[in-house]
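Bug report (template v2)

What were you trying to do?
Predict the complex of my protein with thiamine diphosphate.

What happened?
Run completed; filing so the output is reviewed.

Input:
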Amino acid sequence: MDRAEIVHENLLRALPARAFPPGRAPVPPLEPAQAVSLFRAQTLSRALDRESRAMQKAGQGFYTIGSSGHEGMAAVAAALLPTDPAFLHYRDGAFQIARAGQVPGTNITWDMLASFACSTDDPISGGRHKVLGSRALMIPPQTSTIASHLPKAVGAAYAIGLARRHPPEHRQYVADAIAVCSFGDASANHSTAQGAINAAGWTSVQSVPLPILFVCEDNGIGISTKTPTGWIEASMRQRPGIRYFKADGLDIYDTFRAAGEAADYIRRTRKPAFLHLRTVRLYGHAGADVATSYLPREEVERDEANDPLLHSARLLAQEGALAPEDAAAIYLETCDRVARVAAEVVRGPRLQTARDVMASLIPQKRACAPTNGPAPDTRAEVFGNDIKAMTTPQPMGKCLNMALTDLMLEHGEIICMGEDVGAKGGVYGVTQRLQSRFGRDRVIDTLLDEQSILGLAIGLAGNGFVPIPEIQFLAYLHNAEDQLRGEAATLPFFSQGQFTNPMVIRIAGLGYQKGFGGHFHNDNSLAVLRDIPGLIIACPSTGADAAAMLRECVRLAREENRVVVFVEPIALYPMRDLQAPGDGGWMTPYPAPGTRIGMGEIGQHGQGTDLAIVTYGNGHYLSRQAEAELAAAGIAVRVIDIRWLAPLPVEAILAAVQGCAHVLIVDECRYTGGQAEALMGHFHEAGLASFARVTAEDSFIATGPAYGATLPSKDGIVAAAKALIGGAV
Ligand SMILES: Cc1ncc(C[n+]2csc(CCOP(=O)(O)OP(=O)(O)O)c2C)c(N)n1
């Protein structure tokens, strides 16, 4: 028999018979009326779980991970304020329902059923997923990747504190809010969870405000793998900087007490706390999972006997707040009501087309206060001697430093963060003096954890800041890539743009550093970023472009809510010369503030019609060297710098190559997964007659003399160009 039915029958039998599991007497301070309303929230959560299974059987529901056994989370919600941003575990239906009771105007039963039914009426995801979440309830939708929401919850907590000192224009959280995030006991082991908890402790011991409540819902198992007895308490009780609280999650009185104490502690001290809740898991893990196939039946039955609804009914009866017969009646009425509403909800519209689904990939623009650029007086003071350097050509690294300074002067909500970006000014000096110019609040030396850096950025963005996180080297993005792919990029999609996390992620990357590092400092693959829907990738190749493009990226984040990756070719940071030592051919003047290169605007050098070289980054630099040699051989070239790698400005590129007899793509990324793959496809579809590519080999990059052996070179470009032209003649 279906375990959900067994749990249901148990309730129907035990409630009127007062056959309750044993437990402690109710403890203060939960009041009787509030306790009854929590029981109602728990009951509704259970009824929704039952209905979600019925809907799935009828082909009207599509995903049935439930909250049964975890209904004690209703008492956690009650101990918090509805303005506290909540990043929830997937078993927290009761939390969301209890919170809805604190906010007038939400129709929680309808809303949650609409989510189960994938109806477009679902107010959070618009029918895209069964997610918990609500704008009105300050609950961002969560993807199903366990623990991936913890780094941004830490970021949100930091953002609450920072906004008290520097209120941003689009602030979302009230000043005394605390961030709450919940997760299971198995999830607590995930490196993402451990990283976030560690980051919270690391921050807290330095007396930086970090008002966050971690809630571990410990049902003792993750799908079928048990958590060692006592593990969560043993590993969490003594964490530096984080106060540990514990409660019986089956007991709403005890849970309300402990959650209240934890919340008071956090609001008073602005320090993190960890609430360890004992729960049970009913109905197995999800959907068709049959817990008795991997657990002894007695264990499953023991958990079922500890149904939190039975515990609540016992406590309410002991308190004289609600008679068990009335509890039974509430349960049955709730099940009936939910079934009636579900019958209505499933008649609602569903998403049909790709266009419907994709409508929320790109969020709406937001209104921003106009700015007049950095004020000249302050600018002169902040830049100091650097003002003089603006009158002479500079390499890219310097132009970027100036652009960051100007942008931070212009927009008080920009916050830079990363490993060594502050005191040292970055490995390559790009963020030099930013910390002394703008303070440690706005230029943050983070701990060494890329997930925490991006989580901090997401959390800050959620409270109206415009973060510019730095990933020290492209190869180290991979530690944290899911924070972009699974979290930042999906947030508008699963919330129909009701929640956004705009930011500009600066990543130092690509190859060609002579004599420094090997693969990890010269990573030449952007494939992991290219297919993330909605993500913008910019890659400048000169100092002037870098400054003008960075300004556009900040505009895209600030005004258009976009997540932008800004890839900085490390080898070009210090590049001064182009054709010969001392010619200064690769330096540019720093463009005046306000000069921008719009997204999709490509660069073109030369008007030659024999050959168009389509390239970006270091490829642009090498192609310009090759151009001179090809010109000497009588081949008239134009070099096109595509600048924007995603979305690829296909039409602009096709227009730019028009009239050229041949097109050569120069792509410093690998043959497999590089930009050239996409460009070849587009050129083929556009019917171009003669095109070819030069790419890097499918290899990692070596250290030492062979640093460039696997990469496109000037000579290789010249040879490929001649072969292409010769071959076609
Ligand atoms: C990163 C990641 N790995 C694996 C999974 C698949 N998965 C979903 S839930 C789960 C177990 C989680 O157990 P626990 O944290 O104890 O939460 P519970 O389901 O017991 O409430 C696993 C392995 C996932 N969602 N995310």
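What did the reviewer find?
The longest helix spans residues 32-57. The first strand starts at residue 86 and ends at 87.
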